[in-house]
Amino acid sequence: MNDLILDLEKLVYDVKKNNKKIGLGIISFDVINVECIRFFRYMKQKIDFLIIGIKPEKDFVISIEDKIKILENFETVDFVFEIKTNINDILKKINPDLFKEFKTTFNIYNRIIEKKLKE
């Protein structure tokens, strides 16, 4: 079994034994923007402990490692990980109280290219 799923199961068990609600947010992004921040705030308002899973995207420039480092510094985010397995497997194992998937429509690199093409 995937070590990450085992770690998540243990983390969730420790949080839930204190009667805390857990949220799992799945996000795909290249650049953090206001849409991402709103998503984290929305999730955190509904639950006590927010876990964010980052879906890797091949056309994004920023590495998963850097994205994890960035999100670990957000007060609203309690745990961050890269999704390397089927999301349904993760959902079955941790059984979050709230689950939302979010994909930002903001891609700064595409907007820069579009702007340059218009000039």
Q: What's the CATH topology name?
A: Rossmann fold
- The level of helicity is 40-55%
Number of domains: 1
Q: Judging from the principal axes of the Cα atoms, what is the shape?
A: globular
Structure, explained:
With 119 residues, the protein is of the alpha/beta class. It has a single domain, classed as Rossmann fold, CATH 3.40.50.620. Helices cover 45% and strands 19% of the residues. The chain has helices at 3-16, 34-46, 64-71, 87-94, 108-118; strands at residues 22-28, 49-54, 79-82, 98-103. It has a four-stranded parallel β-sheet, sandwiched between helices. Helix 2 links the parallel strand 1 and strand 2 (49-54). 18% of the residues are buried.
Summarize the structure.
With 119 residues, the chain is of the alpha/beta class.
Features:
45% helix, alpha/beta, 5 helices, 4-stranded parallel beta sheet, 19% strand, Rossmann fold
